[in-house]
Write a structure and sequence with these properties.
This protein is of the alpha/beta class. It has 8 helices and 10 strands. Strands 6-7-8-3-9-10 form a 6-stranded mixed beta sheet, sandwiched between helices. Strands 2-1-4-5 form a 4-stranded antiparallel beta sheet, with helices on one face. Strand 1 and strand 2 form a beta hairpin. Bound molecules: adenosine-5'-triphosphate.
Length: 270
């Protein structure tokens, strides 16, 4: 029987330089009626090019964590740094992919891909050329003139990913990007998105409720506790068969079930 590496849940120092660092991060939401403490004393480092999955109970603060990395939220305590610099506001270096594609229905695929460049008043020609190259590379070459309503759900999510990549982000934040898709499309897109991220060497942080997705895509899986949430444990995911197995191959690999059972038990304990 295949053995899995023991994981004591303790985060180890990175072997590569840190790309994203959170130190003592706390985040509370304030409304007229109440204060909601979402995160407390969150500390972690993510290396450049690393793929991290975040799992945890519903409402524990996973999306909040991504918003802090993206600069859409500012921590109430502690600091968030990217490449050693304190995050202050949003940046085109950080891309976001969400559960729903949020494509503009009245713009064709190419128009959707270049909208970010237009808003940021970047070179339109350059953005258009980049968009066309990416469409070609990722199998949507013939669809530049299609409207979103003429595409399948999986194709629309692929366009949403390409739209993010046009800005050449260093960091990709993925907030349940496959959860609205049917099972077969979800598996196919996981394969494609994984390959694209590895091709580009992008640092990726995936929030998901699907433990199988978390384990099959990530270098490390972070488990969050319930609210006020902190990082409960970190599980490095390694396979004897090699480090560049696709998500599909990882699911068939010997250590996969061991990881699944260990993390599932933790999630059950809350
Ligand atoms: N804008 C807001 N104002 C007040 N409270 C908020 C706001 N956004 C989130 N919260 C609260 O903060 C907590 C964390 O929310 P968040 O969306 O980050 O959790 P999550 O782990 O991503 O949830 P889920 O797994 O259900 O998607 C929740 O209790 C939520 O109700």
């Amino acid at each position: 029987m295949a053995r899995i590496e023991p994981s004591d849940g303790i985060d180890r120092p990175l072997s590569a330089p840190a790309h994203i660092v959170m130190e003592g991060v706390g985040l509370s939401y304030f409304t007229l009626q109440q204060e909601t403490e979402a995160l407390r004393d969150v500390c972690f480092e993510i290396a450049r090019g690393e793929f991290i999955s975040i799992v945890g109970p519903s409402g524990c603060g996973k999306s909040t964590l991504l918003s802090l990395i993206s600069g859409m939220l500012t921590p109430t305590q502690g600091s968030v740094r990217i490449d050693g610099e304190e995050v202050s506001g949003t940046s085109s270096k950080v891309g976001y992919m969400l559960q729903h594609d949020h494509l503009f229905e009245w713009r064709d695929v190419l128009g959707n891909l270049t909208v970010g460049a237009e808003i940021r008043r970047m070179d339109r020609k350059k953005a258009r050329a980049k968009a066309e190259t990416l469409l070609e590379r990722y199998g949507l070459g013939g669809f530049a003139g299609y409207l979103p309503s003429q595409l399948s759900g999986g194709m629309k999510q692929r366009v949403a990913l390409i739209r993010t990549l046009v800005a050449e982000p260093d960091i990709l934040l993925l907030d349940e990007p496959f959860s609205a898709l049917d099972y077969q499309t979800r598996l196919t897109l996981q394969e494609e998105v994984f390959r694209i991220i590895k091709d580009q060497g992008t640092t990726a942080v995936l929030v998901t409720h699907d433990l199988s997705e978390a384990i099959s895509m990530a270098d490390r899986v972070m488990v969050m506790s319930s609210r006020p949430s902190t990082i409960r444990s970190v599980h490095p995911i390694t396979f004897e068969e090699g480090s560049h197995l696709s998500p599909w191959d990882r699911r068939q690999a010997g250590r996969y079930n061991g990881y699944f059972n260990a993390i599932w038990k933790e999630l059950e304990q809350r």
